[in-house]
């Protein structure tokens, strides 16, 4: 198994390859370095089979979608990843073969709801869940320190002590550690209770990452930032979130709300299906097509997507265009399915 870090910076991209079959995967590739990755793959005579993001990044634009388009590699993300352009959604315990290597995915929500770690051989790629002598922040984009603590203690610290830890970020010049070292020496975790960890993470008061506006929503939606005027974080935070059961109740009693699904058509007609009676207007066309909704400017609108993230963006866009009563389906079609509510396939 060949493992190389390719960025030589604070933000890490790992090349993972089976040397026997010349098959490779890239973990957390960064859009600015696509040419370097392609050159490296060609130099090493490796075929890129999978591009994997350990979570939706807020600090850099992902290269996954573009590398998927350029090379035909499978784009892999967690089941809860919001973006439309994901070929393979994985859940806890799922595996993927890359040549003779077996990658095993561990669902580790906390840094974001779609955070996962990847086990390959004696190494674990920990994303921003577990860093060397630190942990990823859990204070925005759906982060939750309590579930992060559970993910680290319950999943990562249950791995063998000598498992090599390879994180997505390092700000102190470290390159590798082990599960045993982190259990003993990680200052945020060693001897820490769940309550203590939550209090510690809530006390950090970190500034938001630079360029978050130009990075997070484009990564969540796989849309270019210049293709759409993304709403501000303040606008997103104002979007009313309604749970699946509430929408289901609303649909049973007139006047029923207008349900707008902002996913791509392939998703609308795909496995998850859609809310019965909902209307498809993909996010990238929503602002332009909002004139079609003119007669509904004052009616109640509920926006829907896969995980509730793109639809929050959609709801904020409609609100900014003067629609008066716009809500978001919290958790999207994934939560609608989890609540076992009726689904339409067409
Ligand atoms: Fe991150």
Describe the protein's architecture and organization.
The chain has 346 residues and is α/β, with parallel strands linked by helices. 29% of the residues lie in helices and 23% in strands. It is built from 12 helices and 19 strands. It has a 6-stranded mixed beta sheet with strand order 1-2-3-4-5-6, with helices on one face. A hairpin with a 2-residue loop joins strand 9 and strand 10. Helix 3 crosses helix 5. The longest helix is centred in the middle third of the chain and has 12 residues. It is globular, with a radius of gyration of 21 Å. The mean pLDDT is 94. The site of fe (ii) ion has 6 residues, from loops.
Low-confidence stretches: none
The global form is globular
Radius of gyration: 21 Å
Mean pLDDT: 94
Secondary-structure class: alpha/beta
Sheet having the most strands: 6 strands, mixed
Ligand identities: fe (ii) ion
Strand composition percent: 15-25%
Helical residue percent? 25-40%
**Number of helical stretches of at least 4 residues:** 12
Strand order of the largest sheet: 1-2-3-4-5-6
Number of strands: 19
- The termini sit apart by 44 Å
């Amino acid at each position: 198994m060949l493992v190389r870090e390719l960025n030589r910076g604070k933000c890490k991209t790992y090349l993972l390859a089976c040397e026997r079959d010349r098959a490779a995967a890239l973990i957390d590739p960064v859009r600015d370095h696509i040419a370097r990755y392609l050159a490296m793959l060609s130099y090493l005579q490796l075929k890129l089979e999978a591009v994997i993001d350990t979570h939706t990044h807020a600090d850099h634009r992902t290269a996954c979608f573009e590398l998927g388009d350029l090379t035909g590699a499978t784009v892999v993300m967690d089941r809860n990843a919001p973006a439309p352009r994901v070929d393979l959604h994985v859940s806890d315990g799922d595996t993927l073969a890359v040549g003779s290597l077996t990658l095993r995915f561990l669902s580790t929500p906390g840094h974001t709801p779609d955070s996962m770690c990847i086990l390959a051989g004696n190494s674990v790629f920990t994303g921003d869940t577990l860093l060397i002598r630190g942990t990823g922040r859990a204070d925005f984009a759906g982060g939750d320190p309590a579930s992060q603590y559970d993910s680290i203690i319950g999943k990562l610290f249950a791995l063998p002590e000598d498992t090599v830890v390879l994180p997505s970020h390092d700000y102190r010049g470290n390159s590798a550690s082990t599960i045993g070292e982190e259990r003993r020496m990680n200052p945020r975790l060693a001897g820490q209770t769940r309550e203590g960890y939550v209090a510690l993470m809530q006390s950090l008061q970190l500034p938001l990452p630079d360029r978050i506006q130009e990075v997070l929503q484009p990564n969540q939606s796989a849309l270019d930032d210049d293709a759409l005027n993304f709403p501000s974080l303040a606008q997103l935070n104002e979007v009313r979130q309604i749970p699946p059961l509430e929408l289901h109740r609303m649909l049973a009693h007139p006047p029923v709300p207008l349900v707008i699904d902002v996913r791509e058509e392939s998703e609308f007609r795909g496995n998850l299906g859609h809310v019965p009676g909902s209307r498809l207007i993909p996010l990238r066309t929503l602002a332009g097509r909002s004139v079609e909704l003119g007669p509904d400017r004052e009616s109640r609108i509920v926006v829907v997507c896969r995980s509730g993230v793109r639809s929050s963006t959609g709801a904020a866009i409609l609100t900014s265009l003067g629609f008066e009563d716009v809500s978001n389906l919290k958790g999207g079609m994934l939560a609608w399915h989890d609540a076992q509510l009726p689904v339409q396939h067409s």
